[in-house]
Amino acid sequence: MTHSPSGAAPDGPAPSAPLGGPVPAHPVYPDLAGKVAVVTGGSRGIGAETGRALAAQGVAVCLVGRDRPALFEVVDGIGKEGGTAIGALADVTDSAALRRVAERVAEELGPVDILAAFAGGRGSPVPALELTEERWRQVLDAGLTATFLTIRAFLPAMVERFSGSVLTMTPASSASSGGHRPGGPDLAHGVAGAGLTVLTRQLATELGPQGIRVNCLAPSTVRTERVAATMSKEAQHRTALRHPLRRMAEPADVASAALFLASDAAGYLTGITLDVAGGRITG
Ligand SMILES: NC(=O)c1ccc[n+]([C@@H]2O[C@H](COP(=O)([O-])OP(=O)(O)OC[C@H]3O[C@@H](n4cnc5c(N)ncnc54)[C@H](OP(=O)(O)O)[C@@H]3O)[C@@H](O)[C@H]2O)c1
């Protein structure tokens, strides 16, 4: 299983460098079959791809999002492939809505084994001097508090069963393993992202003795539908070339890392932030 080589020179632009590249098929993790997962941000992008990848392993998934047509397109697609999926419309900044999702999943799918708190997105950066209190609170609420609320809604049942794998998500530029590398004037997103790595480590420490693992994924720029639609081809090429592996991540690259961390293959890993960044952690 190898990625196709891009042929890009290490130090210069390569106009023919692929923007993305073929991503190897996911390995099968036999322990995942029969489990139950909740994936927030499941209506598109990385969350949708992770939902599809989990379902292909025999996991029953609940996808959470706000956009009904997009969410149910993913749910229906999984059903057509023979997988089990339900969709739950909820805003992850709303703790009451999240509690209702938790109750519904328990009723319809059973106890949750895997929780992927992936909902989010990046708003425009705002330089510190122009950052209003309202904007600061908005970014921290959607980018950090929402992950706490999501985990809190599902945690009691995991603790009760002494079992669970929780995945969080932060941009590689905010991740601790490569060192915090501010990408520009983007204080609120940077703080929210760095906070997620601390949340992950702190929860892993507290919950390890209760049988629960908590790990974080830290992708660099992922070529989701949204990114592909909003970034020019030239910008995608430039971004690809800034990665030692000379391509942008595909959603399947992140899903692959999520499968691994959710599975027993990562049974002794907790509290880590895994860069899914094509080597772009070094500067
Ligand atoms: N793409 C990248 O380059 C990249 C890189 C590093 C990290 N990430 C992180 O990866 C995660 C997914 O990103 P993506 O690129 O796949 O995003 P995307 O394509 O824009 O999709 C965002 C997903 O999050 C959901 N969402 C956002 N806010 C929500 C809310 N308040 N309540 C419920 N659902 C909400 C959206 O659902 P609805 O549209 O249905 O509301 C959608 O499913 C985000 O946390 C993002 O920060 C992305």
UniProtKB/TrEMBL annotation:
Residues 1-25 are annotated as: Disordered. It comes from the Bacteria. InterPro entries: NAD(P)-bd_dom_sf, SDR_fam. Keywords: Oxidoreductase. This is 3-oxoacyl-[acyl-carrier protein] reductase. The keyword Oxidoreductase applies. It holds the Pfam family adh_short_C2. Belongs to the short-chain dehydrogenases/reductases (SDR) family. GO terms for molecular function: oxidoreductase activity, acting on the CH-OH group of donors, NAD or NADP as acceptor. Residues 1-11 have a biased composition (Low complexity). The keyword Oxidoreductase applies.
